[in-house]
Design goal:
Blueprint (H helix, E strand, L loop, with lengths): L3 E7 L4 H14 L3 E7 L4 H10 L4 E4 L5 H14 L4 E4 L3 E3 L3 H10 L5 E5 L11 E9 L2 E9 L15 E4 L1 H6 L2 H12 L3 H4 L4 H10 L5 E10 L10 H19 L7 H20 L2
Parallel strand pairs: 1-2, 1-4, 2-3, 6-10
Antiparallel strand pairs: 4-9, 5-10, 6-9, 7-8, 8-10
Helix pairs in contact: 3-6, 6-9, 9-10
Length: 281
């Protein structure tokens, strides 16, 4: 049974605590509810959070980066292990999600991802497979499994993720060295570029080097797209994204992770290819 609910967001999106996270709290009726708020660097910000959201525990940081924020959540959970669901702040769980989780636990899925209704499993290619099903209120819900490591696209990727269900077992399996190494590698990248790396990639790397090669997932949220950071120049976005991924791979070289060499070279080639359209546009 889920006893802890967590979300994370930057300060400029704190409205989502009231709009979506409160709904999820009422849905799950969890005993402990925590919000990690990034981009908090001033005491007055903390007073605003305390005044407006007394029904949750607020933990602040100033990483300017969802990846480092997620690693902080994992570090805290390893110290405070529990049955936890970490949900993206702009998502609402479908009604009575606790019953879905109960059935997932009975079926042996002690950790899994939750995707939003917009995901089409057939679009994920050969890395995705249907592995089972559960039933709640007479409704059949399919369970899928996603292979974390890929050779070309999304090389470390945990699959569809609007929420992540973790139990004490998987928290105990987390490779702390891999967590620290990718954290250090991210910190060597300029903070203005780090958010070009998805947290699905960071989690994929940590899972993979913790011995987890496949991640079960199920559909169970409504994604309320916030559109606060629209992409207005796709060519430049792709160029910087490739640059950032290649830098991440380079920073991880020599630390005992053989597959990061291909991560570096694959995205270095992509960086060159993505730069040409920008130069001649």
């Amino acid at each position: 049974m889920i006893d802890k609910l967590i979300t994370y967001l930057p300060f400029y999106r704190i409205n989502e605590i009231e709009e979506y996270f409160k709904t999820n709290i009422n849905n799950l009726r969890t005993s402990k509810n925590i919000v990690y708020v990034d981009n908090v660097y001033y005491e007055f910000q903390k007073s605003i959070l305390k005044e407006h959201f007394p029904y949750v525990e607020i933990r602040t940081c100033n990483f300017n980066d969802r990846n480092l924020c997620y690693i902080q959540i994992l570090e805290d959970l390893i110290e405070e292990p529990s049955e936890v669901l970490i949900i993206d702040s702009d998502n609402v769980l479908i009604d009575d999600f606790q019953r879905i989780d109960d059935e997932m636990q009975k079926a042996g899925y002690n950790f899994y991802n939750v995707a939003d209704k917009g995901w089409k499993p057939d679009s994920l290619g050969k890395r995705n497979a249907k592995v089972g099903e559960i039933k709640t209120d007479g409704i059949t819900r399919f369970v899928y499994s996603y292979k974390i490591y890929g050779m070309y696209n999304m090389m470390f990727f945990i699959g569809p993720k609007q929420a992540v269900r973790l139990d004490k077992g998987i928290l105990n399996r987390m490779n702390k060295k891999a967590m620290m190494d990718i954290k250090d590698s991210l910190l060597k990248i300029d903070l203005r570029f780090r958010n070009y790396i998805s947290d699905e990639t960071t989690l994929g790397f940590i899972y993979y080097y913790s011995g987890i090669k496949h991640v079960p997932w199920i559909i169970g949220t409504e994604h309320e797209y916030h559109m606060s950071t629209p992409i207005t120049d796709v060519k430049t976005f792709k160029m910087i994204r490739a640059l950032t991924f290649s830098r991440l791979g380079k920073n991880l070289m020599g630390k005992g992770y053989p597959r990061v060499y291909w991560l570096y070279f694959r995205y270095k080639l992509a960086q060159v290819g993505r730069t040409l359209p920008v130069l001649f546009s």
